[in-house]
């Protein structure tokens, strides 16, 4: 029986198609964007998902943090769905994702347990075929690990009920062998000044570990984050397991690269961790 592989959908668009060029770009980003401190007992990271030229610096700092400070073997990746709306959350029903750097296998045992333990999480292809928010994380993982498998989860309906169900089951895998990656950009197409004001709300909620308040702010339009549900899920999962600290590592926007500050997209990376 042949394997089912989810092929790269945005190679050549969000990041280089050529493997050597891609690896060199990631290694350069990692080399130039080092964190200023170390963190213990890491539950996960928040990372942006734009083209590497725009958000790669913010992402690289977060990936450096987990490269230096964890021994994880499995990355549970939480992604919003930009192309299709669906109820619940969908785990890809295949064997691996593929990037120009090779295949990254899916941890079927953890994936099956999550699906079996949940009413709103299921196997399928909903949200996976074209989604960039999940895919752009994979080359970074491949660059910082000798081996890592994944549980790729695309969240459709980011309702509080669905997020709480996801957090409850993910908390059962919260150990040093597992990391959670929440993929999210921030506000879209505001002036740099307006974007900074909106995105600072998200940054402050993360820093203060105020995930119920973050959910309410997003629901009420006080701030914007396409992967807000993923961020809330990471924070709640960490809280369940006693890791209730977070720090913003980087806060930038597309205008820093394009020099067009009239209409920018906001980016943020953060680490979620505990004592010890």
The assigned CATH architecture is 3-Layer(aba) Sandwich
What are the segments in which pLDDT stays under 50 over at least 5 consecutive residues? none
- Percent strand equals 15-25%
Radius of gyration: 17 Å
Give helix and strand order, one letter per element, not per position: EHEHEEEEHEHHEHEEHHHEHE
Number of domains: 1
Q: From the helix content, strand content and strand pairing, which structural class follows? A: alpha/beta
- Tell me the CATH superfamily: LigB-like
Number of H/I helices: 10
**What is the name of the CATH topology?**
Protocatechuate 4,5-dioxygenase, Chain B
Overall 3D form: globular
**Largest pleated sheet:** 9 strands, mixed
Terminal residue distance: 46 Å
Classified by CATH, the class is Alpha Beta
Tell me what the structure shows.
By secondary structure, the chain is of the alpha/beta class. It has one domain: LigB-like (Protocatechuate 4,5-dioxygenase, Chain B, 3-Layer(aba) Sandwich). The protein has 10 helices and 12 strands. Strands 2, 3, 4, 7, 8, 9, 10, 11 and 12 form a 9-stranded mixed sheet that branches. The chain has a 3-stranded mixed sheet with strand order 1-5-6. A hairpin with a 2-residue loop joins β5 (96-99) and β6 (102-105). α1 packs across α2 (52-69), α7 packs antiparallel against α8 (211-219) and α8 (211-219) packs antiparallel against α9 (228-240). The longest helix is centred in the first third of the chain and has 18 residues, at 52-69. The protein is globular.
